[in-house]
Design goal:
This protein is α/β, with parallel strands linked by helices. The protein contains ten helices and seven strands. The two termini are about 15 Å apart.
Length: about 250
């Protein structure tokens, strides 16, 4: 656990959305929940100033030559079909790609394989968070990568269910209801209030639930109870961790 982190810090869960970044913050003193759409990850960090713990559903550390062990371990734990929600993270060399073809070529040059369209679609957000964390060692030490499907898996297990990824897809009616039912005992009416208050052209319903799931993981990170994949924390060429917590 990093030195300045503790359960008295504000907690923040962040998910990428059409409008930029959808962030949910829980005040450490009052427990009150607030939400915000930020245009950049730097804006997220300005809104949730240190020592707030920020958990985000986005790759952070980037390999330069091989695929990340944390992605492989996440897929193994989630099992099919939810394992498909963990994309192969592009290598660092692909960050500046201006087209899907160029990104595939750069990734293939480093690893022997291209990237998926889904991975390319989030490439700009990966680059955005990478710039913000490389610019500040203090911020880099308080921002953690989380995959919400792992959080939902753990919530399900802790509420008496099976320890595997949810069967229902998150964009389906049943998948939305299942995920919200797992979050409601933790956050009460705050989840529904956030869903009711969202601006649909900027934030999808699954963005809201993912952000709350990541916020739940931020609490586990703060208390030292989060699971980390892999058990060691490898670093990339920029010194950023290539690890997923939940």
């Amino acid at each position: 656990m990093r030195d300045h982190i503790g359960p008295t810090s504000d907690l923040v869960g962040v998910d990428g959305c059409k409008g930029g970044w959808y962030a949910v913050r829980q005040d450490a003193r009052t427990g009150a929940i607030s939400e915000r759409i930020c245009g950049s990850f730097a804006e997220v960090l300005s809104w949730a100033t240190a020592p707030a713990i920020v958990a985000v559903d986005m790759p952070i550390g980037l390999s330069s030559s091989v695929y990340r062990a944390c992605d492989a371990e996440a897929r193994k734990r989630l099992k099919w079909p939810r394992s498909a929600s963990v994309f192969q993270t592009p290598v660092r060399q692909a960050l500046g790609a201006e087209s899907f073809r160029q990104a595939c070529d750069l990734n293939r040059e480093a690893t022997g394989k291209g990237i998926s369209q889904q991975a390319f679609n989030i490439l700009r957000k990966i680059a955005d968070i990478d710039r913000a964390l490389r610019a500040s060692a203090r911020d880099a030490s308080r921002v953690f990568e989380v995959h919400p499907e792992l959080a939902f898996m753990q919530l399900q297990a802790e509420q008496g269910g099976e320890e595997r990824g949810l069967i229902e897809g998150k964009t389906t009616v049943d998948g939305h209801a299942r995920r919200k039912a797992l979050l409601d005992p933790v956050f009460g009416a705050s989840v529904q209030a956030a869903l009711d208050g969202r601006v649909s052209r900027h934030v999808q319903k699954d963005d809201v639930l993912d952000a709350f799931a990541v916020l739940w993981s931020a609490r586990r990170i703060a208390t030292g109870s989060a699971i980390m994949l892999p058990v060691e924390e490898p670093r990339d060429s920029a010194g950023l961790p290539m690890a997923i917590r939940y």
